[in-house]
C-alpha cells in the first residue's frame, strides 16, 4: 500500500520569543493557570513537562516535571528561555496538520539529514539610527543538517577586527524513537552589554565596536527620521550615543525537505529580548492581538463574557504592578515620565492629574476592577463598553477624554492607549451594543464671533 | 495557559490563531506572542510597529509616524519625505486637543494613529489598489492647524491640498505555495520585514531603558510597584522594583529622580542586571 504524500510542512509556532539569560541551563517549562478559588487572584505558575537536551549529542536525554521553578541558576544568572520549533506536516487526504516524526521520514526512505535548516538573525539597532549599512550586525548560518550546537556570531563591518556579538545558539534536535518529533531549538544570548573600544567606565561585558564608528558619538538629530520615542540609547549627560550595543536580535529560521523531487519549505520568526519578570501576568494589549486583527480584521465574529473577562484580567495584571498614584500625576515627583507629564511636554497641555487624586491609590483601582470582574462572572453583560477609548480618540486630551479606558497608559502612537479595534469589538459584541464605531466625537472649534 | 503533553496533537491548517498560540512541547507561555506587549516599545521583546513599514508596495514608512522615509520603487521617488494623511477616506492622523489653560479646549497638534488600528480594515483586501493622499510638503515638518476641525472638515481640508497616489496594499502574512489549503501562511511575510528590523527601533542597549524610561506602561513584563500591601491607613504601601536592598527598607515607594543612589544605576544594570533584577510571583520578590 502506498503511503500518503506529504503535501506541506509548517514550522510552529510561527513566531517564537527567546528570552535572554547567561545561565548554561535553559529555563524549565511551566504553566500559568487561572486559580479557581479566587478568579481574579494571581495566576499560579506551576512546573510543567520539560525536555532535557543533551547538548553534545543533540538528542533529548529525558523529560521531567521539576519540583520547583527557579528562574536563576545557583550563580544567580538568569536561565534563558530557549524555544523549540516543531515541524508539522499535512498528508494527502488528511485535513489536519500533525507533527512530523522520524517514523514518517523512515517509512518514506528519508533521513533526518534530509531536512535542512538555515538561520538569519540580526541586530539593526545602531543601523536604525545611523543609516550606515556598516552598522548592521548580522549572522547567517546557511545549511544545518547535523545535530551539533551552532553558535550565532553577530558580525559587523564596524566592529574591531575579529570581534563578534554572540546571539546565542541553534541546534537541530536529533529525533529518536523515544522523542521522534522533528524540532529545532533557538537559545538566545546571555544578555550582555557591549561597547566601543576604550569606553569608560567599564560598565559592559566587552569592547567590540570601533571607537571611530558612526554609532559612537552619534547625536539623535530629532525630526521625522528619529525613533519614537527619540534618544533611546545610552547617552550619559551628553545626549550623544556612547555606542553601546546589546545582544538582542530577531530573524528567520528556514526549514526545507525534498520529497520525491518536490521541495517543501516553511519558516518561522524568532526574536530575543529581556525576560518576562512577572511571568504570572500578561499585558492587556499583546502582539497576539495585533496578529489576530491583521488575520481577521477589526470586526469580531462574536464576543463572549469570558473574552471580556480575559481582557479585564490582563488590565488588572498591569495595574497591580504599577504605581497608579505616580502614573496619575498626583504630584510632580521623580522625573515624571507618565502620561500627564508627556501631555504637557509633547503638546503643551495644562498639567493636571488624570483622575481625582484621592481615587487612584493602587488598592482602590484594584478594587474597581475586582468589582467589574465580579459582575462579569455573574454573567452581567459588560456595561462599561462605552467607557473605552476608541482608536481615533487618542487625540482627545480633555478631562473626559483622558479618563477613558485603558487609563494612564501609553499606546504605540505615543498618546493614550486604545485597545485594538478588534478587542473593542469583542467587548461591544458581548455587551449587545449595535455599534461603537461611530465617528469620534471631536468637536469643532466654535466659529469666532 | 497550561500544556497537556498527551492532548491529540492536531491543528487545523486554516486555524491561524491556534498556530500562533501553539506551545511546542517544552515551551513556557512567555515564548508566545500572547506574552509580548504591543503598546509602547522602547525596551522589550520587539517593536511590532516595524511590520507596517512596507505595507504599501514601493514605499517605506516610518514605524510610528506617517512619514515616507524611503522608496523601494523609483516610480514613487516623489513621495519620499511626504506625510501620508488619508488612505481613501480613512485618516492616518488625528488632531490633539485639550486645555492649555484650565477650562480651555484648543488645538494642540496632531498625532499619527497606530498603523495597526489605522490599517485594520484595509488589510482584509490585500493586493487592492488604494488612493492615498500625501502632504504637499516634503520636509517632514509636523502638521499645524490653529483650530480644531470636525473629522469631515479635516478630511476636506487635507485631501484638497494633497498629492494623490494610488498604492497597492500588501498582505501581512506570507503567501502559500504548492499543494496547500490556504492562500496565506501564519507567518509575517519576508517582504515586509527583514531580519533585525523587528527589534531595530528598541533601546540600545535595552537595559538602559529599564532605568531611563521610568514609564511603567509594561508593568506586566517590567514591574514597577512590588511587594504591595495595605498600610495602616488602608492605602497601598510598596516598593519600586528598581530599589536596592529591598528587604532592609520600609515599603515606601522611591520615585525615580535619576539621582537617588538607593535605585540601581545604569552602569549597575549594564554589568549585573541578571543578579540585581528580581522575578515577581504574586507581586512579591520571588527568589
Shape estimate of chain B: globular
Percent of residues in β-strands of chain A: 25-35%
Spatial shape of chain A: globular
Helix content of chain B: 10-25%
Largest interface: A-B, 175 and 158 residues
Question: Assembly type of the shown chains?
Answer: heterodimer
Total domain count of chain B = 3
What is the gyration radius of chain B calculated from CA atoms? 24 Å
Helix count of chain B equals 5
Query: Poorly predicted ranges of chain B (pLDDT <50, ≥5 residues)?
Result: none
- How far is it from the N-terminal to the C-terminal residue of chain B, by CA? 23 Å
- SSE pattern of chain A, N- to C-terminal: EEEEEEEEHEHEEEEEEEEEEEHHHHHHH
For the largest sheet of chain B, list the strands in their spatial order.
Answer: 4-3-7-8
Query: How can the largest sheet of chain A be summarized?
Result: 6 strands, antiparallel
Provide a descriptive summary of the structure in words.
The complex is a heterodimer of chains A (449) and B (287). Chain A is an alpha+beta fold and 449 residues long. Chain A folds into 2 domains: 6-273, no CATH class; 287-431, no CATH class. Helix content of chain A is 18%, strand content 26%. Chain A has 9 helices and 20 strands. Chain A has helices at residues 102-106, 125-130, 287-296, 305-319, 324-327, 339-347, 362-377, 399-402, 421-431; strands spanning 6-12, 15-19, 30-33, 44-47, 50-53, 60-64, 84-91, 98-99, 115-123, 137-144, 149-154, 165-173, 183-187, 193-196, 206-209, 216-219, 240-242, 245-246, 249-259, 262-273. In chain A, a hairpin with a 2-residue loop joins β19 (249-259) and β20 (262-273). Chain A is globular. Mean pLDDT of chain A is 92; it is low at 438-449. Chain B is globular, with a radius of gyration of 24 Å. In chain B, the strands form 6 sheets. Chain B has a 4-stranded antiparallel sheet with strand order 4-3-7-8, covered by helices on one side. In chain B, strands 1-2 form a two-stranded antiparallel ribbon. A two-stranded antiparallel ribbon of chain B has the order 5-6. In chain B, a hairpin with a 2-residue loop joins β13 and β14 (284-285). Chain B folds into 3 domains: 1-35, no CATH class; 52-171; 206-285, no CATH class. Helices cover 13% and strands 21% of the residues of chain B. Chain B has helices at residues 16-20, 115-118, 151-160, 206-212, 266-276; strands at residues 59-61, 68-71, 84-87, 90-91, 93-98, 106-112, 129-134, 163-168, 173-175, 184-188, 225-230, 236-240, 280-281, 284-285.
Amino acid at each position: 500500500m502506498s503511503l500518503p504524500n506529504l503535501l506541506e510542512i509548517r514550522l510552529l509556532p510561527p513566531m517564537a520569543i527567546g528570552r535572554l539569560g547567561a545561565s548554561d541551563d535553559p529555563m524549565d517549562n511551566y504553566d500559568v493557570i487561572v486559580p479557581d478559588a479566587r478568579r481574579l487572584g494571581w495566576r499560579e505558575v506551576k512546573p510543567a513537562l520539560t525536555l532535557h537536551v543533551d547538548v553534545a549529542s543533540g538528542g533529548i536525554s529525558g523529560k521531567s516535571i521539576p519540583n520547583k521553578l527557579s528562574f536563576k541558576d545557583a550563580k544567580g544568572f538568569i536561565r534563558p528561555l530557549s524555544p523549540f520549533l516543531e515541524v508539522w506536516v499535512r498528508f494527502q487526504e488528511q485535513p489536519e496538520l500533525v507533527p512530523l516524526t522520524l517514523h514518517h521520514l523512515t517509512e518514506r526512505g528519508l533521513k533526518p539529514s534530509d531536512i535542512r535548516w538555515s538561520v538569519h538573525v540580526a541586530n539593526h539597532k545602531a543601523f536604525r539610527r545611523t543609516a550606515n549599512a556598516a552598522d548592521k550586525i548580522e549572522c547567517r548560518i546557511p545549511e544545518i543538517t547535523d545535530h551539533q550546537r551552532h553558535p550565532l556570531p553577530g558580525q559587523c563591518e564596524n566592529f574591531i577586527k575579529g570581534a563578534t556579538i554572540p546571539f546565542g545558539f541553534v541546534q537541530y534536535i536529533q529525533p529518536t524513537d523515544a522523542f521522534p518529533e522533528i524540532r529545532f531549538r533557538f537559545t538566545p544570548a546571555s544578555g550582555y552589554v557591549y561597547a566601543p573600544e576604550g569606553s569608560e567606565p567599564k560598565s559592559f561585558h566587552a569592547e567590540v565596536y570601533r571607537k571611530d564608528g558612526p554609532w559612537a558619538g552619534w547625536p539623535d538629530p530629532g525630526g521625522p527620521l528619529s525613533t519614537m520615542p527619540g534618544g533611546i540609547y545610552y547617552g550619559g549627560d551628553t545626549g550623544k550615543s556612547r555606542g553601546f550595543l546589546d545582544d538582542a536580535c530577531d530573524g528567520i529560521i528556514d526549514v526545507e525537505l525534498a520529497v520525491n523531487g518536490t521541495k517543501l519549505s516553511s519558516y518561522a520568526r524568532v526574536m530575543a529580548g529581556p525576560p518576562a519578570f512577572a511571568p504570572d501576568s500578561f499585558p492587556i494589549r499583546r502582539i497576539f492581538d495585533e496578529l489576530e486583527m491583521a488575520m481577521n480584521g477589526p470586526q469580531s465574529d462574536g464576543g463572549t463574557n469570558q473574552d471580556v473577562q480575559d481582557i479585564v484580567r490582563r488590565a488588572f495584571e498591569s495595574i497591580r504592578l504599577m504605581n497608579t498614584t505616580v502614573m496619575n500625576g498626583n504630584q510632580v515627583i521623580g522625573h515624571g515620565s507618565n502620561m500627564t507629564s508627556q501631555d504637557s511636554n509633547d503638546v503643551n497641555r495644562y498639567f493636571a492629574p488624570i483622575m481625582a487624586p484621592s481615587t487612584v491609590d493602587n488598592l482602590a483601582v484594584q478594587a474597581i476592577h475586582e468589582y467589574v470582574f465580579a459582575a462579569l462572572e455573574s454573567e452581567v453583560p459588560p456595561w462599561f463598553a462605552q467607557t473605552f477609548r476608541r482608536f481615533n480618540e487618542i487625540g482627545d486630551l480633555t478631562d473626559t477624554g483622558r479618563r477613558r479606558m485603558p487609563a494612564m497608559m501609553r499606546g504605540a502612537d505615543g498618546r493614550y492607549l486604545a485597545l485594538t479595534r478588534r478587542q473593542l469589538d469583542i467587548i461591544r459584541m458581548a455587551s449587545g451594543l449595535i455599534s461603537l464605531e461611530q465617528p469620534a466625537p471631536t468637536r469643532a472649534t466654535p466659529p469666532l464671533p | 495557559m497550561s500544556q497537556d503533553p498527551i492532548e491529540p496533537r492536531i491543528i487545523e491548517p486554516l486555524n491561524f490563531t491556534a498556530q500562533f498560540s501553539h506551545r511546542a512541547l517544552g515551551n513556557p507561555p512567555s515564548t508566545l506572542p500572547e506574552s509580548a506587549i504591543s503598546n509602547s516599545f522602547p525596551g522589550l521583546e520587539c517593536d511590532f510597529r516595524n511590520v507596517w513599514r512596507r505595507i504599501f508596495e514601493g514605499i517605506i514608512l516610518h514605524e510610528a509616524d506617517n512619514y515616507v522615509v524611503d522608496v523601494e520603487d523609483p516610480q514613487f521617488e516623489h513621495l519620499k519625505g511626504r506625510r501620508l494623511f488619508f488612505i481613501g477616506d480613512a485618516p492616518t492622523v488625528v488632531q490633539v486637543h485639550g486645555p492649555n489653560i484650565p477650562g480651555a479646549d484648543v488645538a494642540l497638534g496632531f498625532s499619527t494613529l497606530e498603523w495597526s488600528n489605522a490599517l485594520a480594515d484595509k488589510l482584509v483586501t490585500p493586493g487592492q489598489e488604494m488612493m492615498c493622499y500625501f502632504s504637499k510638503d516634503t520636509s517632514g515638518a509636523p502638521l499645524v492647524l490653529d483650530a480644531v476641525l470636525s473629522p469631515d472638515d479635516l478630511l476636506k481640508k487635507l485631501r484638497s491640498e494633497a498629492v494623490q497616489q494610488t498604492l497597492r496594499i500588501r498582505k501581512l502574512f506570507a503567501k502559500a505555495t504548492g499543494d496547500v489549503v490556504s492562500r496565506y501562511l501564519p507567518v509575517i511575510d519576508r517582504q515586509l520585514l527583514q531580519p533585525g528590523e523587528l527589534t531595530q527601533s528598541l533601546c540600545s542597549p535595552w537595559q538602559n531603558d529599564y532605568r531611563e524610561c521610568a514609564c511603567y506602561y509594561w508593568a506586566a513584563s517590567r514591574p514597577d510597584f512590588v511587594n504591595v500591601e495595605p498600610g495602616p491607613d488602608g492605602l497601598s504601601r510598596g516598593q519600586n522594583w528598581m530599589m536596592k536592598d529591598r528587604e532592609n527598607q520600609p515599603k515606601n515607594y522611591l520615585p525615580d529622580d535619576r539621582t537617588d543612589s538607593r535605585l540601581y544605576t545604569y552602569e549597575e544594570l549594564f554589568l549585573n542586571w541578571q543578579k540585581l533584577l528580581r522575578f515577581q510571583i504574586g507581586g512579591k520578590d520571588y527568589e
